[in-house]
Amino acid sequence: MRTVFDFSPYRRSTIGFDRLFDTLENLAQVDGNASNYPPYDIERTGEDAYRITIAVAGFAQDEIELTAQQNLLVVRARKAEASADDAQPREFLHRGIATRAFERRFQLADHVHVRGAHLENGLLAISLVREVPEAMKPRRIEIANANVASLIDASETRQAA
Model confidence over 83-92: pLDDT tens digits? Predict the structure, then answer.
């Protein structure tokens, strides 16, 4: 059964959360088999570091494409066409290794960037890091003594005159 969420009451009473509601609506949509192929893991590897590991057995490094856009990571894979050297037909008795083309999209939070990727033993590992700019980090503001504050106010008044 498919559950549909209606975010319109929240959209009417909030300002600036459009992207959040768009993301929630996209995640609520069921995408058939695309949602479970290929299998993947998402893990936290540090305070501000993450890793996505995708099972890409049967794909070569040049058959996989990673694209990082603002707040979106797209992983695509397509099997290369058989070359003329592989003219001999293959007869499978059982075919269980899925090498069908896929496209997997990951929504990234603000300030999360792809650090790098590597392919090893049929697993594609993508390293991510959250780098918040210094201007956006919380900072401590010292509270001035009342006597110092009155001196500052008095000097500002004299300079204005």
Answer: 555 667 888 8
Contact at 8 Å (CB) between 57 and 122? Answer: yes
Fold of 34-82+97-160: Immunoglobulin-like (2.60.40)
Q: Is the pTM of this model over 0.70?
A: no
As separate numbers, helices (DSSP H) first and strands (DSSP E) second, the chain gives: 3, 7
Q: In whole angstroms, what is the distance from residue 96 CA to residue 99 CA? A: 9
Residue range(s) occupied by CATH 2.60.40.790 in the chain: 34-82+97-160
Task: Give me the DSSP letters along 5-20.
Answer: ---HHHHHH-SS-HHH
Interatomic CA distance for residues 74 and 72, integer angstroms: 6
* Tokens at 19, concatenated: 């992207």
